[in-house]
Design goal:
mainly alpha, 3 helices, elongated
Length: 96
Amino acid sequence: MSTDLRITFDLLSNMATKYGYIAEDAQTCCDGAPTELDGGIAQALILDLIGSQSTDLGLFAARARRIEDNLRALVVAQLETEEDVAGAFETLKQEL
């Protein structure tokens, strides 16, 4: 007995849009991080923490953009063969 998984292109488009929103929000947080503060003795440590968070958010935003692009490529290509779809989802799985 076998079953086929059917995923609609609307679902893929919605997922791509949501990853786009996630990327925008992460980039907004990254861009909005303070670069100066008066923290006394802890100032260097606080700025270092903010800087590392900013870097991590930037990397996360870039990864979310790649996932969004991969999902949109699935929709645009209108993949028809199971092998192509399986390969595309394997790529997405590795990105996640």
